Amino acid sequence: MRVRYTLRAQADLDAIFSYLDARAPSSALEVKSTIERRIAMLGEFPRIAPETDIPGVYELTLVRYPYKVYFDVAGDNVEILHIRHASRRPWTGE
Fold first, then answer.
1. How high is the pLDDT of residue 91?
2. Which of 7, 62, 70, 94 has the most other CB atoms within 10 Å of its CB?
C-alpha cells in the first residue's frame, strides 16, 4: 500500500519537528524518524491500529513518544490525516 500525507498531517509533522528542534535538537531527529518509520509501517500493516469512534479512521499510538497518528485506508492508499500529541484531547475529525 502507498502511504500519503494530507497537507494537515505534513504541517503537523513539520510543527512537531520545529517545536522539538527549538527545545531539544539532539532528540528532535530521533522523534521525527520514529514517527516516520511507524507511519511507513502502515503501508504494510494498515490494520495494525484500532478504529476510532470516527468510522473509517484509525489511531496509531506511538509507544516511545507521546504522539497519535490518525489515518484512513482507501483502496491501495493509507492516508495520514492528522498527527497530534497524546496529552491533547482526542481528535474528533474536525
1. 84
2. 70
